[in-house]
Every structure is written in C-alpha cells, then in structure tokens.
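Complex record, two chains
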Amino acid sequence: MKKLYITMMLVAAGGAAVAQSQNTNTPASYELRQQRSLWEQSGNPAGLKLDRPYQFSTLKAGYEGYDGDFRRPQEGASGNRQLVETAGGVFLDSFYLSGKFSYRREQVKDAKFNASIIDPFRGMPYIIADLNPSDWIQQHYNLQFQVASPTYGRWSWGLGGSYNASSGAKQRDIRTENYYYAITVTPGVVYSISPKHHVGLNATYKNTKEEASMKNVNTYVDQVYYELFGLGTAVSQLGSGRTNNYEGDSWGGGLQYQYKGNVTLLANLNYLVEAEDLIISFTTPRDGGSVLRKLWQAGIGLQKESDKLLHTLQAQYYNRHIDGIQYVTQRDNSSAQQGWVTLAKYIRSTYKTQELGLNYSITGKKGHDDYSWKADFAALYSKLNDEYILPHSWKNTENVYFQVGGKKNFSLGGDRESRLLVGLRAGYNRNLNGSYQYNGQHPEYPTVTELETNDYRYLASDFVRFELPLTYSLHIGKDNKRVLFVNAYGRYTKANSFDFNNRYTYGGSVGVNF
Amino acid sequence: MNYLKLLIAAILVPVLFAGCKKVLDAADTEIIGTYTVKVKATSTTPGITDTEGLKVTFENFAEGTKVEDTLGADVTAVGGLIPGLYSINVSGRVLDANGDVYYLNGAKINYPITQNGAVIEIDVSGLKVSPLIFSEIYYSGTATNYFRNQFYEVYNNSIDTIYLDGLYFANLTPATATLTLPVWPATDGNNYAYAERIWKVPGTGRQYPLAPGESFVMSQLAVNHKLPQYNPASPIDCSTSEFEFNMNNPTFPDNPAIDMSHVFYNGSASKGTLPQYLTSVFGGAYVIFRVPQGEAYDPVNNAELKTRNLGSTSTSLFAKIPIRYILDAVECGQNQNMIAAKRVPAVLDAGMTYVGATYNSLGVARKVGAENVDGTPIYTDTNNSTEDFERGLVPVFRRHGSKMPSWNPTK
C-alpha cells in the first residue's frame, strides 16, 4: 500500500517535469485558480476542462496543534496533527488529469465517550462510549484523481475516484484498533448545448468499511462501557467491549448547468443515499444497527470578472436526513445453534441537519493569475433536529453564523519576488434556538448528563472566532516557476455561553508550488 | 477485449447489486410505534382455573422499560409496549374452590414482542414457598483482584426450626452470564437446573439446627480478610462463618468454620485441582436444594443425573438438579442487561441482580418485607431477584439483626 501511495505522490508531483504552468505559481494564484474552478467544486469530473485548467503541482508539509475547552465531548481536549499534501494537474494528450494525495498523522489527547470509531461525527450513532479520557493515535491517507476527456462532438466524459484509508488506536482501556476505508467512483458527462450553455450529469458510488476490535490490556479490571443508540439512550455493559464491523454503500448523482457569458453561472443539485450497517462480532455476527442517510445539496455560483475585479456570489443549501435503525435480535440457543437471529427492525431515531449558506467575495486582481487583495462576506444558517422516537427525546439547535474577512497580497520585491499574503477573518455565531430533552430510561447515565448535555451546549453556544493566516513566498530556481512558501496561521474561538471558555488552533506548513 | 469487459462486468455487477440491496433493505424499515398484545394465563395447578386479578409485568431490561397491568377474566390486552425482548411475569394470589389462598407464578423470559396484536399464552402454577432463602451474596471481590472474600448467607425465613444437615449448595453453569447458553438434552425438558459444582452441609441429620430469624454463612475462605496478609481493603471479616469451602490449599490455614462436604465437580466427587472455590466475580447463579425424603440423589454415579453441554465440544460434565428439589435460587450477572443471558429457569428466579463491576467490594442483599416479633427480618421472596434484592451494598454478615446459630464454631 505504501508503494502505491509513493507512486501516486510521484505522479502528482511529477507533472512538474512537463508542466507548462501559468505565469505565476504563488499561493495567491493557487487560491484564485481554485476559486475559478466551479466545475471542480461541483463534483462532476467531466466538466474540469470547462474550468480552463492548467498544469500545476504543489507539495507541502505542515503541523497543527489545538487546545481549549470549547469542544464537543468526543473531541480531544487537545491534540496535534502532522500533514503531508501534494496535488497536481497535468494534460495527457487531450485529456486533463488531476490528482491529490494527503497523509495526516494525528494525536488526539483525552477524548471521551468514544471507544469504537475513528470519526465519531460521521453520522453513525451506534458506537461504544467509555468514561476514560483517552488518547487516540490516528493516520489518514487520502488519494484522489479526476480525469476529463476531450470533447467528442458536444460530449465530454469524466471519471473521478478517491480512496481514503484510516487507522486509529485508542491508548487506554477499553482500547480499540480501527481500520477504515472508503472508495468512491464518480463517472460524469457534460453536454455542451452551445459554447455558452453546458449541462452535466454525474453518478457516484461509494463503499465504506470500518472494523473496530476492542480489548482490555489490564484484563484484571473490567471496564464499564455504554452501547449508544442515540441522544443519550444507552445500554451499560461491563467488560472489554466487542468487535464492530461497519459496512456501507452509497449511491447518488448530480445535475449541473453552466452558463458562460458576461457572467459565469453554475448551478448544481446533488443527491446521495447511504446505507451503513453495524455488525457486531465476526464469529457470531449480530445486527447491531443501521443508518440510512439521505443527503441533498443544491448550489448556485455566479462569477463576474473584469480586468481588475472578480466578483463571486455563491449560495448553498444542504440537507442531511439520517434514519437510525435498531434491530430486535435473539440468540438461538437451541441445538440448531443458528447464532443471532434478527426478528424485527425499526427506525428508532432520526437526525436532520439543514444548512443555508451565502457567500460573496470580491477580489482585486493583479494580472490574470494573481490577486492583490480580497474581501469576503459569508452567512450560514444551520438547523439541527435530532429525535429519539420512543421514548421521545430530542436535541435541536438553530444557529446563524456571520463572517467577514480579507486578505492582502504584499509584494516585498527583490530578485526572488518575495510576497507576504496576510489575512484576517472574523466570525460571530448566534444561537437562535435550541433544547435538549431526554425522556428515556436511565437519565442518570453519563451518556445523558455529560455526553449529550455538553454536546448540546457546544452546538447551542454563541461564540466569536478570529483567524489570522500568513503566507510568505518567494521564487526559487532559475526559471522563476517554482515558488517556496511558508505558511502560519492561528484561529481563536471564544465562547460566550454555558461554562465554555475558548478553543485555539495554530499551525504552519512549508511547501513548494511548481 | 471482450473478455476484459466480461471480467469487469462480472466484478462490478455483484458489487453494485450488493450496494443496492443494502440501501433498499435500510429503506424498507418501519418507524417504531407502541404495540398492544393479548395475554392469556392458564393455571396448571389443580383446582384453580381463574387467573383474573393476577398482575402481569412486562420488563425490557436492556431498555429499562416496564409495563404493568392486571389480568381480566379471559384475554387481557396490554398496550404501550415498545417492540423488543421482554421478561413477562404473571403473579399474584388467587382463591381455589375451597377458599384456600395460592400464590401463582408464571413467566416468559426474552420473549420477543415484534407483532402488534399478538396473543401470548402463559402457564402459571403454584409457587413453592421456601423456608430457606439466600439473604446476602458477595461475589465481586476487592481491588486489586482479591477474590477470596466471597461468601453466601442463607436465612431461615420461616417460623420453624430447620436442620441444615444434608442441605445442598451449588453454582450453576455457565459460571458467568453469557448470551451463548448451553444446549441441554431435549428429553430433560424444563425439569432441571445444571450445576458446575455441588457442596453439601455435613451432619448426621440434626446437628445443625437453624432457628427462625437465624442465618448461616458459607465462605470461600473463612478468615478475617482485613488482615494484612489478605487484603486490608476487604469490606468483610469472614472468620465467623459457619461453613467454609475448603479446597485443601496448603497456602491457607484450615479455619474453625466447618468444611462443606464436596459432592460433584465435572462428573466426579473429587474436588479437582483448582486451589480455591472461586465463583465468577461477574456474578454467578446459586441454588440451595434438598433431596426429598425417600429419594436418592447421586449425580456422580447416576449417569441420568449428569450431562455435557451438547452445544459445545467440551467433555466437561454438569450435574442435573431437579427443579422440584430447589429451595431458592439467585441469579447474578454483570448488570441489568445480562437478563438476556439467564441460566436459572424463570419459575425459580424471574430476574437477575448485580453490582455493576468486578472487584468493587459490593454485594447484594435481600430486601426486608416485614419484621418478626423478636425484631428479626422477614425477607421479601417473590422469586424475582431483580425485585427482591438491594444491589451494590457493602457486604456485612447477618444484616438487619438476623441471628447467629448457637453451634457457630467460633462461639
């Protein structure tokens, strides 16, 4: 597997050898390229060439740390990450191929209420929670590619794919060792009605799996743990945990329409339905729970570009509905020994998330490929409505988040055309509404009094957030195509609700665009 | 090229089909609602046909829900049940044709309620009221990993003096509650409990009288466990125990407590090679029983009274105890959710008690229902240890003023 990653890294980075990149490769130009790539953002690889891509390569390595008590209970109290990322785009004959690879190693400190899943926020309520604050060590690999064909008549074809692999190990009893993968395949097509009008269609298939093997190293001390069923509903157990096997499949598709004239408009609509089953134990499998996730996403992006300015207006709507399915199972202890028999299944809980976002940015261009300054304004309305149906419990929140930001690209001059990109972003989250009410059994369980109560408090908190990114870059080499950059950033969030104080993140990276 | 296409299709089609099936299966799920079931109780006790007025209780231990109702004349509809596995108990007092009072009891354990309107038929029978009952059990041990202070206290809950000579004590199999239950011979029906090891109170027949309000204690090791050479954190001094399970371990002294007589282990009268009589620190299932006069009970030599677990390849043998012999049974497990792993037939103990952890120095003790004139307790005994026992108590001998028998060897 490592050989595969190394090979892909070399392919992604190796585009440089034949690259005929744009005039500048600065971090600001890289941002601008991403901003203009509306088809890339839509997820349909067939439209990549309509973004007018160019050959590029980037490679960076970074470090990030975080700390502070304003967090969800299942997040680490603190932690750090090390990151290596590379991305590139290259023309192969008349095809355009882009690829990305990233590796992230993360050390999570003192996370609670999660002893069975690498990412407890990925929409899977059926996990194991224990009470011991514990470190996790995780590694995440991500490999992506997108290829777009030349136009055949009015048709363009594309194919995207990604492979994510993660491993995680909890460092304190009850320990767990987890392995996760997700493979996604996205074929797409774009039909050009005219040079100004294009419609796209893509499909998506995704397959995921996560295995978790739990055990105690100190076998003399049996641990209390909780099987979670949602919103604090839990069954307490004693021992060393269990083996969890999560398997999921997703199907979906997207529709796009683009108009390219005085303005560029791209509207897209995506739908994805995912089913994921939890099977407990490999030796005597038992249905432990399932989820059915339905995700809608609609967006419209509008860009108006002149010689000096680029205006971008984007609106996004996102809707995720999860049905939590629980099984009634019974162990067959007759002489037939059929193991666990599933007698019935019911939707016991639902989880709804809705988001509506509006984003406007204005960019002062420096030539065609670089910018001098940038200002952006964003507003995001989000609504969460989770319910456990019987006995009826609920957790809901309604928030609105405003953000304003700007960046200035200073030219520092010199032979190497060094630059300093300085940004500042400020945001304010206002909680409009929210409540958490648990009406099930055992309201004294910590899954109710700590996990869900504090999770609700986090989600219903007012806060302010400031971000300060700094990037220094300079050209290296003789051809002035290679740019070395050093980036540092800090993010500070100050909560104004409940007993939370703050959360801060800091980090930096060094990399090369070429 | 065609072969390549076929190969790709052969791989892709099953994968895509499987992906579709998972999504369609999940989409084909109904939203939960409450169900109503119809309960019909039938008396198997001669002379009693009427079950009206009995209390029916539905308990889903995993979800912690409980629904109670009173039975009507024929079929009683019980509503408000969330689908799941239930322990269903029917109990109460009824009058026969002669006006005599009977305590009836019947149960179904781990019964699935997955169909609205289903009819549930439960047989109820006259309950054997035991004069001897477990009053306190301490099995969990003390941190760190000290298990030698386990003990079992038995109380005379009747108004008569009872001679303990020949009284049997056994722990049932599986030693620790597990959802993988053994498979027993079909011909046994529901007539037996299955013991891992059996002990007996020695004596000539009238050597060990137990007066009303008195209790006796059987300890794994009848010493003061608070002494430095044992575990000072131990909550209990077992040196005043009446009986001890002596496994002839040379590391420990033989104590004043009277040695229990060993009866059965793995098909043999021999104690085996284990250095102590340790029952599960997660909680075992324990019974006391007495063989009716005129009957012989020899599980070592009578092949009809021992069996292996037919669901396993193990050759270990377990003793069959006729249920009609059993005076009292208490089932202990890791926590309330292990009710699904019951080893004890529901007619003997319809519930389960627990302390929630191992080595936490806590035990279980029976609840007091009333008091005798002399202040000694009359304990609650409804054959449901979930209801009858207080859980998570610091263990003590002779709680609530129960008395020590006169022949206690340390007196």
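Note: Confidence is low (pLDDT under 50) at residues 1-21 of chain A.
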